[in-house]
User: Fold these one by one.
Assistant:
Number 1:
Amino acid sequence: MQEHILQVKHLTKHFNVGRGQKLQAVNDVSFNMKRGETFGLVGESGCGKSTIGRTIIGLYQKTSGHVFYKGKNVHILNDTDRFKFLREMQMIFQDPYASLNPRSTVREIIAEPMDIHKLYHHKDEQNERIYKLLEEVGLNRDHANRYPHEFSGGQRQRIGIARALALNPSFIIADEPISALDVSVQAQVINLLRRLQVEKHLTYLFIAHDLSMIKQISDRVGVMYLGHLVELTYSDRLYEHPKHPYTQALLSAIPIPDPDIEEKRERIILEGDLPSPINPPSGCVFQTRCPMAMDICAIKKPQWRQIEQDHYVACHLQN
């Protein structure tokens, strides 16, 4: 049995927005991750998936719940253990334009985490490590002395990946790392991440809103809606046998390259706008847009339960 490297238990994150109101970004989310796997977290913009990643790594303080990394609660670590934890868990950010300091060279950007953690005492040794990282992500050592504005979006994201690898982490949170890139570049970055995962034995939490792309990289997928996890299972099973109406709607929106099949298949069109996370619906949060909603959906919150082996859903239709 594979070891659970990460355990998220009943994680909740609310933001105070003034006048006594709270934005309920994440509500009672639980999942585990095995060492070496890629766990995809997918959903519409604003569903809370990025907040989960940032709360796990500690950029946000949790409202309630627990996050365990290698058996240790990451939100109560002492300074020494926190420092070690941040060497092992790193993050690749969504926007390669905003996440790199425009006043720093590529060398300085990648060297910064090394300097903070005092990895190298000799500059020559550090420079060789930087050159190697650049080559591993598909750049070359001549790029070390250039500034971010001299690179394309795909190249900037490769620099961000090199920075995330600078401390030799074992776990990487990839927060929509391809959404800001051209479609022609997205596949290149995905292939790079897959190759690095094999070579460096990495575990990925891969956050995205593109279900067609996340299928290519994820072993298991969790589907988020309005701060709640509504379905979780293996990638192939989710795409072949989705159980939650929201998952079914998302998958129906993916175009099929065969024009004959595409013309005949039925699309599930969700009506209405995404409700506000400040004032979410009662009962099931999806009931205001669900084409199969029942009376009970507006009254009672569906229970998160296992309906098949390693397949979890929160939906009254599955009771």
Number 2:
Amino acid sequence: MIDKHFNPANDGAQMSFDGRMSYADYLRLDLILTAQHVRSSSPDELLFIIQHQTSELWMKLAISEINAATLAIAEGHHPQASKMLARTARIFEQLNSAWDVLRTMTPSEYAAMRPSLGQSSGFQSWQYRMIEYLVGNRNAAMLAPHAHVPEVMAELEAVLARPSLYDTAIQSLAKAGFDIGDDAQRKDFRTTREANPKVVEAWAQVYRDPSRHWTQYELAEKLVDFEDYFRRWRFNHVTTVERVIGFKRGTGGTSGVSYLRRMLDVVLFPELWSVRTAL
């Protein structure tokens, strides 16, 4: 039976925080919980803001994990990289779930608050852009929406100057003795690399004998796991937008659903998907 008068202090719980760090202090909840500034009278705007703010927080963690995984692969620490990539996939599982909440907003509810967005759009998320650049989808034209923030531009340019997650994974194949063709001499990382038949064959060798090439096999599957969740995130984005605004243009000026559908065709790790046909 539960004691309704139980005092946690009697069990050792700290109850006084005068001059000491509390839960709210540690998490800076004073900043986080006061960062939602609605601009309309619509009660649904708070949902819209919180969904996007929490998504940006998950993206911040994803960026940290992808950077760490890339470094771990480059240094040959594959078990650690596998753990980081597994966590990144789970992060995108959380990002996928966020769309389920946003989809509770009806077209009429969104229409009531949409004017408050002005020209702002998720299309302008620099953290999302950084994730794409970090994993290998590198379109320098997408720097333009961030040109007004020099600090962000500097970070994105720095990412474009170095090998992506997938570049590093391919280089690890070469270090393990696999022939990766022209990718072995790649120096310019600012553009999205072209699919390479030599890399397909290298991954095919890995998949034909997993026990012999377990390190590369596990890495390949962790990368595919991540892209699987990433694709689901993009698909859920398209579905949510179509459900809420139909085929209207996006607030940021894109064609909306039509633009997002084109993004579904972007493949991050092409050889890891085509190798399945080659086996």
